[in-house]
């Protein structure tokens, strides 16, 4: 909710979420159900993230991606490791107050797994 990620074939771009970005999540990759409208909105938001980027991890720099889905009692996370850095993005617990967390985390998981391939690891239950 407080952070925005753009995952493309070229890498991962991240920035703090701004009000102008609204609440949005989409998976536009293989097997996704994106519409022309959601693709246009994704491009708009990607442009906003690019303007305010805090990090950019090129695909070739990714050593490992660790991912844990959030649950009812514990939050989730994505950890992107490179040869020289580690970036952790935490996700809040799934609750009635945050109905989009489960759907958003699934889309993020799909995008990161598509990008990282064999360097992607789902770490069910592992706490780091």
Summarize the structure.
The protein is an alpha+beta fold and 128 residues long. The chain is 25% helix and 28% strand. A four-stranded mixed beta sheet has the order 6-5-4-7, covered by helices on one side. Strands 1-2-3 form a three-stranded antiparallel beta sheet, with helices on both faces.
How would you characterize this protein structure?
There is one protein chain. The protein is an alpha+beta fold and 128 residues long. It contains two helices and seven strands. The chain has helices at 36-51, 101-116; strands at 3-8, 11-16, 55-58, 64-68, 76-81, 86-91, 120-122. The longest helix is centred in the middle third of the chain and has 16 residues, at 36-51. The protein has a single domain (3-122), classed as PH-domain like, CATH 2.30.29. Helices cover 25% and strands 28% of the residues. It starts with a strand and ends in a 6-residue tail after the last strand.
Descriptive key words:
128 residues; alpha+beta; PH-domain like; three-stranded antiparallel β-sheet
Taking pLDDT < 50 over at least 5 consecutive residues as the criterion, the unreliable ranges are none
Q: How far apart are the first and last residues' alpha carbons, in Å?
A: 21 Å
Any idea of the CATH topology?
Answer: PH-domain like
Radius of gyration of CA atoms, rounded to a whole number: 14 Å
How many domain units? 1
Mean pLDDT: 85
The major sheet is characterized as: 4 strands, mixed
- Percent of residues in beta strands: 25-35%
- How many H/I helical runs? 2
CATH class category label: Mainly Beta
Number of strands: 7
Strand neighbour order, sheet with most strands: 6-5-4-7
DSSP helix fraction: 25-40%
Structural class: alpha+beta
What CATH architecture would you give? Roll
Q: Please provide the ordered H/E string of secondary-structure elements.
A: EEHEEEEHE
* Overall body shape: globular
């Amino acid at each position: 909710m407080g952070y925005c990620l753009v995952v493309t074939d070229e890498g991962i771009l991240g920035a703090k979420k701004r009000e102008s970005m609204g609440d949005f999540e989409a998976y536009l990759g293989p097997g996704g159900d994106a519409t022309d409208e959601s693709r246009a909105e994704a491009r708009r938001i990607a442009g906003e993230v690019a303007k305010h980027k805090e990090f950019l991890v090129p695909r070739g720099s990714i050593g490992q991606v660790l991912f844990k889905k959030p649950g009812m009692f514990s939050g989730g996370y994505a950890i992107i490791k490179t040869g020289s850095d580690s970036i952790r993005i935490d996700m809040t617990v799934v609750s009635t107050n945050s109905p989009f967390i489960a759907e958003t985390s699934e889309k993020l998981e799909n995008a990161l797994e598509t990008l990282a391939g064999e360097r992607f690891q789902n770490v069910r239950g592992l706490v780091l």
